[in-house]
Specification:
disordered N terminus, 154 residues
């Protein structure tokens, strides 16, 4: 089984890294519509952030509305660290599962009506995703955890 996992991992790690870069590049634009993102989220995705825990596509849309109310478009998500580790492989549904851990620097302007009062922000965040990749190379996010970076979280 190990050789199967290794062969799946060879191209998938690079593919997942490209997906992560594209995902955050799209977030930087922070368009009014969240529809671009939902095809990459499992129907039962669980998203945990400082704003709360959100479930499914409706939960993502709720969280996205909060993000739109806080931040102006043209944010900057700088990927400071991305690690992709195989978590499991299911031969039944032909999907490999990966844990993706990232350190992201978010620099953004806030709306004057937000709790940040229009001040610029510069956050360092730790993110952990659980993703699957199918035979066609489609990446699907199942779990999405974001916590502020602290020295203790290293």
């Amino acid at each position: 089984m190990n050789h199967v996992l290794e062969s799946v991992n060879d191209g998938s790690e690079s593919h997942i890294r490209q997906f992560v870069s594209h995902w955050f590049g799209s977030f930087d634009r922070l368009s009014e519509e969240s529809g671009f993102f939902t095809p990459f989220l499992a129907d039962d995705v669980v998203i945990s952030m400082s704003e709360g825990t959100f479930q499914g596509h409706d939960g993502f849309r709720d969280w996205y509305a909060i993000a739109l109310s806080l931040f102006k478009s043209d944010c900057q998500h700088q990927l400071e660290q991305v690690e992709v580790q195989p978590a499991a492989i299911s031969l039944a549904d032909r999907r490999a599962t990966y844990d993706v851990t990232m350190r992201i620097r978010l620099q953004a302007q806030t709306h004057s009506t937000s709790p940040m009062g229009g001040e610029p922000v510069d956050f360092l965040l730790n993110e952990t995703w659980r993703v699957t990749v199918n035979d066609a190379g489609d990446v699907l996010i199942h779990e999405y955890l974001v916590v502020p970076f602290t020295q203790d979280s290293e």
